[in-house]
Amino acid sequence: MITALLLFWPALAALLVLLIKGEGAKKVAFIATLVEFAIALFATVNFVPDATTQFAIDVPWVERAGIGFSIGMDGISLLMVLLTTFLVPLIVLSSFKHDYKNPHVFYALVLFMQTGLIGVFVAMDAFLFYFFWEVALIPIYFIAAIWGGARRIPVTFKFFVYTIFGSLFMLAAFVYLYFQTAGTELAAHSSNVNAFYQLTMDSATQSWIFWFLFLAFAIKMPVFPFHTWQPDTYTESPTQATMLLAGIMLKMGIYGVIRWLLPVVPLGVSQWADTVLVLSIIGIIYGSVIAIRQHDLKRLIAYSSIAHVGLISAGIFTLNEQGLQGGMIQMLSHGINVVGLFFIIDIIFRRTNTREISNLGGITQTTPALSIVFLILLMGSIALPLTNGFIGEFLLLSGVFQYNYIFGAVAGMTIILAAVYMLRMFQGVMFGTKSEATEGFADLTFHEKAVLIPLVIMVFWIGLFPNTFLSISEPAVGQLLSIINR
Amino acid sequence: MQEVVMPFNNQEMALLCLLVPLLPFIGFLINGLGNRKLPKALVGMLGSGTVLASFLISVYLFIDFTSNGSRPYIVDLYNWFTVGSLEIGFSFMIDQLTLLMLLMVTGIGFLIHVYSAGYMSHDEGYGKFFAYLNLFMFSMLVLVMGSNYVMMFVGWEGVGLCSYLLIGFWNKNHNYNNAAKKAFIMNRIGDLGFLLAIFLIFITFGSVSFPEVFLSASQMSGMTDSGVMIAITMLLFVGAMGKSAQIPLFTWLPDAMAGPTPVSALIHAATMVTAGIYMVLRSNVLYVLAPTTMEFVAIIGLITALVAATIGLAQNDIKKVLAYSTVSQLGFMFLALGVMAFSSSIFHVLTHAFFKALLFLGAGSVIHAMSNEQDIRNMGGLRKWLPITFITFLIGTLAISGIPPFAGFFSKDELLAHVYEHNKLMWVGGLLASFMTAFYMFRLLFLTFFGKFRGTEAQRSHLHESPSSMTIPLIVLAILSTIGGFIGLPAVFSDTHTLGNFLSPIYDLARRANGAAMEAPHIDHATEYMLMGISVVVSLVAITIAYVLYVKKETVPAPEGTRLSPIHNLIYNKYYIDEIYDTVFVRPVMALSTALHRFVDVVVVDGIVNGFGKLVMAFGRVLRQTQSGVTGFYVFVMVASIVLILFLNFFIG
Amino acid sequence: MNQMPDVIRTIPLEFYLYFSTALFAIGVIGVLTRRNAIVIFMCVELMLNAVNLLMVALSSYRSDPNGQIFVFFIMAVAAAEVTVGLAIIVMIYRNIRSTDVQLMNYLKW
């Protein structure tokens, strides 16, 4: 029941928000997302830390065809749901000082988006998963295309078409897999996740299914070389959309790999894991190196995101516990850090009207609070110990290193390169003398602090007590590994 | 590392151990959050007071430890993170080495905090400065107290962050910021090595906790000089190279002098940069199992000592000279580690911490008096105005030059004796480096405090001795630099090497693992007297030359822009190493970044994606010709198609 | 099968088939060749009715009422369609003063 509530509450709230004209919409939306977060917390409290799928609902959807409306949460899903429900209120709150046209539509779309995202993370049926996968795309498309920057139309069009292109391959693979499943007395086949897990196919079949599925997930993440929609989209979207994209939507791809790729086609994975690792590691170096010379803050973080996701992807494809658990924790960390960083960029942009590093500088002289928060989030992203990034990167690199020493060493370059581009950015923006644009730069306001302080708390919580989260996903990851190694 | 590490159940002691790093951390939080609101006096009190408290607790821990049979113990705070068989505890370990480092770090840290209260009193970032210093103390204490490699790494990176923040303390100046960034990035290169070493240790030994790793290392057979041991120790050493500024990762340390002088004294001379030595020493069991690495460590140490010393000969910035001398002394310490003179190395760490902190603080006092002038060409004759600074600085200089009975003499002499035993050629190199050290240190001293004043009138009118909050730490450190050497008297003077005996248990496992390597060198007394005599004579010669050059002849180094002889030019420009790195690493990466972005990303990768789009569009353009918009045509095509299908169906199907 | 009235059998099924095929063909040719929208529209009706006729005939010969029921539906829909269609044509005429379909080639991108 909780899962259904989690799933439908944002959609209901969205309908409600649509009815409210004017500024009231953002407050209602904010309260609705807080309620959603409370529901997720309630679920977490009642969650039994074992490998089972809990709070499950399984009602027939297309009964004759064996397609069910099957939702539920295991530890992996729960972590993703927690991340989503934690970030969305902050993203809504972060937009309070923005005057978006038609605010009721904007916030309704954000809430619809949340339903789509939660749906992706709780769906236990392939077609339901696909359904929510596409549902999540539509609101973000409109948000970006309506409230975005000057080049929003071509950029969001490309983003939309590119991701749909990948998704269709996934659908094709799902249809094929569906026809391989054994059915029940009611239906000839089943699209339930467990039915998919029981499939046994020869390795040649698994090999092409692997690529069909991987393409969809790789575009979403994005993994090099399927990333080119991403910097443009991040740059052109309104900041709240960028936060949704980078903070949560990107995790859909990784979650998809963990839930729908690794256990379904283990033979395919074992054939192609090396290739994927190489691609991911190229992505790490490639994204980091490009980020070094970027002058637009949003674009810089966009490329850094490619690097971070590359590491997560490399880690989970090592198929060892440290890699997978590291991937889980790093998804949370990356979501938190990247949302915080984008918000800080938004704050800077709103006050100076520029995102060019060369036009900024000296901000730290008048803004102790902003400097501290910025530095903390930055240290989180470059994986300083006792911040959240360290736990993730340590486990991921450890996983990759165990898989292959050379891969581990090359992937480890990220800790050097991340320091290079992040510190260069920090120095350019915060240090030095004041520029024309940053003259009279005001420190954080109350509502900005309200967004950033929860993020900072989470940076240290995950950094100091990662077991809180690791223990949630540990049994599920263990079970997943046993399915993969069956 | 001893074999037995007691589990620890004493709650009060556990709390005390926790308080050692926690107190500075609390100081950091209060000073950091109350940054601009707290009164300066309170900030200074809080910053120094917390460190003093840590020092007192450390003393108590030390007394408690020695009076309870010197048994090391582990204080487990909580399970930090667990994944599969990897279990990382947030825990501290107390043993001889830790205690020694604790006393050194908190003791010298306290003195430097007190000094900073005076030195930084006019700075607007006073609260921020103390917050950073306290954070540094916290990180450094975690580094030395951590009971596993990951905890050590926590402190390791933490001190790197503080170093970054403090070098770039005056962040309006981008030169300083660049120096800070360079320090952080070069350290990160080392950190990657350290991190990979941790992974390899975990894979090899199934644990990262010190007692378990060292115990299993000492019990595994056939590990001596095996590939994996060499790999682990080499990777660890890469980490040490970064942190302790060894060739090839040393160029950040001279640049790090951009930070306030107390920072240079605390972080870049006395404590953080010796973390590399601490790490190697802590891993002594692993290192004795990899003699190849040890040889490499010794060679790197020696080369660093020599290269840095030669550069030091020609520098004119008072802090730069001290920085190169620090690099050079660190080289000595690694040289000692490489020849397995572990205790001599830590002995030198200790005495070096005394006299180098003293020298830096003295330099700070000079800079303070000279209104932020750092160029020794513009100083001279300062002993008239700064008597206390002069005397203490002289003591420090004598100590670093190895003149008995000052602290540096004993440690350096012991160190060189071990090197002599190991390899005569290395000993000659070490002697050469120590000759240069004595020369450039006395050059510095003479140019600063002797001769005529060469600065501007404005500077002269402001010359004054520093306030007591600055001179008292100088005096304390001067006393330590004078008598500090007596904790490790050489065998010819005394039967008991206090420090050596105290530290001896930490090599128990190393002895078991590779007993042959750990055997103490047997130097007869005659040789030892001879070695001692040679090194003193060498230093005295160097001092005499410096005296003749800079006091008798009153030579002053050539001003900027003068043509220098090629060799002089080479060392004056630090062998152009920065320029070489810039050409070989920085520029290519920057060019690669631009190329990858402009060409590969936008043109190639995105071009392919857009190419797909364009292909579809091209098809569309062709196919749209059929969509004439004339309904009749559509109907005709439809009918024709139906007829065709029927026709085919009839004749073929 | 046995209840089929004899009167129907007086004309064999083939005749119905030929007739409705011819009717359909006339309709198709009309649609293809004529340019006046109203004539085309009537030809479409012709095709529709050819099919209706065929359905009724087959339904009767097979004694299956389904076909005739379908025809009723088709007639109802056709009536509605005529209404809409003619309305559209009238609107077109009002706009361009012609019912020539060649002039209406706006249906392209």
Automatic annotation (TrEMBL), chain A:
It is a multi-pass membrane protein. It is found in: Endomembrane system; Membrane. Its main location: membrane. The chain crosses the membrane at residues 6-22, 29-47, 67-93, 105-124, 130-147, 159-179, 208-229, 241-262, 274-293, 300-319, 331-349, 369-391, 403-423, 451-472. Keywords: Membrane, NAD, Translocase, Transmembrane, Transmembrane helix. InterPro entries: NADH4_N (IPR000260), NADH_Q_OxRdtase_chainM/4 (IPR010227), NADH_UbQ_OxRdtase (IPR003918), ND/Mrp_TM (IPR001750). It holds the Pfam family Oxidored_q5_N. Residues 66-118 form the NADH:ubiquinone oxidoreductase chain 4 N-terminal domain. Residues 123-414 form the NADH:quinone oxidoreductase/Mrp antiporter transmembrane domain. Belongs to the complex I subunit 4 family. This is NADH-quinone oxidoreductase subunit M. It comes from Pontibacter amylolyticus.
UniProtKB/TrEMBL annotation, chain B:
It catalyses: a plastoquinone + NADPH + (n+1) H(+)(in) = a plastoquinol + NADP(+) + n H(+)(out); a plastoquinone + NADH + (n+1) H(+)(in) = a plastoquinol + NAD(+) + n H(+)(out). It is a multi-pass membrane protein. Residues 80-130 form the NADH-Ubiquinone oxidoreductase (complex I) chain 5 N-terminal domain. It holds the Pfam family Proton_antipo_N. Keywords: Membrane, NAD, NADP, Plastoquinone, Quinone, Translocase, Transmembrane, Transmembrane helix. It is found in: Endomembrane system; Membrane. Residues 458-599 form the NADH:ubiquinone/plastoquinone oxidoreductase chloroplast chain 5 C-terminal domain. Residues 148-437 form the NADH:quinone oxidoreductase/Mrp antiporter transmembrane domain. The chain crosses the membrane at residues 13-34, 41-63, 97-117, 129-147, 153-171, 192-210, 230-253, 265-290, 296-314, 321-340, 346-367, 388-407, 427-450, 471-493, 529-550, 631-652. Gene3D superfamilies: 1.20.5.2700. Belongs to the complex I subunit 5 family. This is NADH dehydrogenase subunit L. It comes from Pontibacter amylolyticus.
UniProtKB/TrEMBL annotation, chain C:
This is NADH-quinone oxidoreductase subunit K. It catalyses: a quinone + NADH + 5 H(+)(in) = a quinol + NAD(+) + 4 H(+)(out). The chain crosses the membrane at residues 15-32, 39-58, 70-93. NDH-1 is composed of 14 different subunits. Subunits NuoA, H, J, K, L, M, N constitute the membrane sector of the complex. It is found in: Cell membrane; Membrane. Its EC number is 7.1.1.-. Keywords: Cell membrane, Membrane, NAD, Quinone, Translocase, Transmembrane, Transmembrane helix, Transport. PANTHER family: NADH DEHYDROGENASE SUBUNIT 4L-RELATED (PTHR11434:SF21), NADH-UBIQUINONE OXIDOREDUCTASE SUBUNIT ND4L (PTHR11434). Pfam families: Oxidored_q2. NDH-1 shuttles electrons from NADH, via FMN and iron-sulfur (Fe-S) centers, to quinones in the respiratory chain. The immediate electron acceptor for the enzyme in this species is believed to be a menaquinone. Couples the redox reaction to proton translocation (for every two electrons transferred, four hydrogen ions are translocated across the cytoplasmic membrane), and thus conserves the redox energy in a proton gradient. It is a multi-pass membrane protein. Belongs to the complex I subunit 4L family.
